[in-house]
Automatic annotation (TrEMBL):
Keyword Transmembrane helix recorded: yes
Protein name: Stage V sporulation protein AE
Gene that encodes the chain: spoVAE
Chain segments annotated as coiled-coil in the UniProt record: none
Keywords: Membrane, Transmembrane, Transmembrane helix
Taxonomic lineage from the root: Bacteria, Bacillati, Bacillota, Clostridia, Eubacteriales
Cited NCBIfam families: spore_V_AE
């Protein structure tokens, strides 16, 4: 049943992103920033954590999940390191995802030739 909820929640987020692109005069970059910021805000007030508990990867893989990861990492780092955690916590928590994006981007650039 968890796979179904993950699929539905992740799919609903994709539908919301597509509707935002179709109905408003925004670029994909605007939608990216909007969804990451919304994930951070909802994570900061404690709502996104409940969605993650309910939908699992359906909530952590889409863009709002990145914002949630940054905020939750900052919260943990502040508890451990104090004010310095504000600067280090988000990147520490998201380091695995950032590394994967860089490595897969490098691999794709080595394997495929771009077309002009």
């Amino acid at each position: 049943m968890m796979f179904l909820w993950a699929f539905l929640v992740g799919g609903l987020m994709c539908v919301l992103a597509q509707l935002t692109l179709d109905l408003f005069p925004v670029t994909p970059a605007h939608v990216l920033v909007l969804f990451v910021v919304l994930g951070a805000v909802f994570g900061g007030v404690g709502l996104y954590g409940k969605l993650v508990s309910f939908a699992g990867a359906g909530a952590t893989v889409p863009l709002p999940g990145f914002g949630y990861t940054l905020v939750s990492g900052i919260g943990e780092a502040v508890k451990e390191k104090g004010v310095l955690g504000l600067l280090t916590g988000g990147l520490t928590a998201a380091a695995g995802g950032i590394k994967a994006a860089i490595l897969f981007g490098l691999l794709a650039s080595l394997l495929f030739k771009p077309k002009a």
